[in-house]
Amino acid sequence: MRYIPLSSSFYRSNRARFMDAISQGGLAVFNSNDIYPISADSKMPFQQHRDIFYLSGIDQEESVLLLFPDAKNSNHREVLFVKKTNNHIAVWEGAKLSQKEATNISGIQTVLWTDDFNSLFNQLTKEAKSIYFNTNEHYRANIETQTREDRFIEWAKKKYPTHQHEKSNFILQRLRSLKHKEEICQIQQAVNITEKGFRRVLDFVKPGVWEYEIEAEFVYEFIKNRSKGFAYSPIIASGQNSNVLHYTQNNSKCQSGDLILIDVGAEYGNYASDMTRTIPVSGKFTPRQRRVYDAVRKIGEESMKLLVPGTLIKEYNQEVGKIMSSALIDLGLLDKKDLNIKDKKNPAYKKYYMHGTSHHLGLDTHDYGLIEEPIEPNMVLSVEPGIYIPEESFGIRIEEDIVVQEKGGPINLTKNIPKDPDEIEFLMSSR
């Protein structure tokens, strides 16, 4: 692995909290992701399922984690199964984890080969009252591909139809939404790598460069600093492209006088960062661009102050909508009569600001979080207001990553990434 892993005690703590939350006699199983095929013999790079990683730290395919706190044999309360290696695999793919190495990473003492899973699982189901399956319950999930986890659930339901079925994901959503100090450090490291990429780009951008060339500058800096690359598909959107919220083609030439909306984040140790900055291609904002930029920046700063324990995301977005509405009036994009039209589903400001302001951040860019419940300390959230004006051929978004605190306001993990327009212009003029 490229990254420095977290401590085995962190993963032991995660498992302990999960097992405390399941019902008596509950047996939980977590599977790694598949390596997905492309075509012929081509495959996509492996990405570990974030839940088994959160509970074990194991970043290898064909791994299975079994948690059974009420097992009669204490050696069966935590069992990790990893892929058995051989000389052929070692020659072609490199060595896989040994059982001892898997124990050192995870803190799990009982490590078996994946080939042994069916036998032990069958034995333990005779002691279990229920089986906890790890379905994907994320509020944004839209899954079209059957996963390794899905196949296991389908198999186990047919083989053990008389067992009660429970869901692990709701427990994990609660646990993963609150970040441990070690996790925040990993996210900060990802942010720091993103900052290096952004500063590199400020020195590179000029009229005539292509969006994909900017993307390449980020890739270089990310991989150089022990990241696998982008935490999500990068958005390098110049000119009118900046009004497309999820623009990822990155294939246009950057023109003098335009803005570039850059929404990228490095991953580090499977943890994501998420940054957006908007910069002028020519190195200097026009007066109108600067006025809108300052408005977005101010909205972000005011939004951050609202992210305190006890806040509900729904109410928070409503308050941000009020701040945004006032800013759009000041910019001449709305007038007061527009606000008299009461449409809760489609308020007037949505014409220029269509998305929410914050999402949870962690092992996933849109991480787990129970969004109907109040915000709590040690949640990591994005703050990303934007104003998009197609008729003026530019959109501006500024995004920060923050940690909610018990008192004193949030900690801004992205505070060192240039955001002040004077600083951005200065850095771009110093090329």
Kindly describe this structure.
With 431 residues, the protein is of the alpha+beta class. It folds into two domains: 8-177, 3-Layer(aba) Sandwich (Creatine Amidinohydrolase, Chain A, domain 1); 181-429, Creatinase/methionine aminopeptidase superfamily (Creatine Amidinohydrolase), CATH 3.90.230. Helix content is 35%, strand content 16%. It is built from 13 helices and 18 strands. A six-stranded mixed β-sheet has the order 6-5-4-1-7-8, sandwiched between helices. Strands 9-10-13 form a three-stranded antiparallel β-sheet. Helix 1 (8-21) packs across helix 4 (99-106).
Question: Brief description of this entry?
Answer:
The protein is α+β, with helices and mostly antiparallel strands. The protein has helices at 8-21, 50-56, 87-92, 99-106, 117-125, 148-159, 169-177, 181-202, 211-224, 287-306, 313-330, 336-339, 421-429, and strands at 26-31, 37-39, 42-43, 64-67, 78-82, 110-113, 130-133, 164-167, 235-238, 259-264, 267-268, 271-272, 275-280, 380-383, 386-389, 394-397, 400-403, 411-412.
List the helices and strands and how they pair.
Blueprint: H1 8-21, E1 26-31, E2 37-39, E3 42-43, H2 50-56, E4 64-67, E5 78-82, H3 87-92, H4 99-106, E6 110-113, H5 117-125, E7 130-133, H6 148-159, E8 164-167, H7 169-177, H8 181-202, H9 211-224, E9 235-238, E10 259-264, E11 267-268, E12 271-272, E13 275-280, H10 287-306, H11 313-330, H12 336-339, E14 380-383, E15 386-389, E16 394-397, E17 400-403, E18 411-412, H13 421-429
Parallel strand pairs: 1-7, 5-6, 7-8
Antiparallel strand pairs: 1-4, 2-3, 4-5, 9-10, 10-13, 11-12, 14-17, 15-16, 17-18
Helix pairs in contact: 1-4, 8-9, 10-11
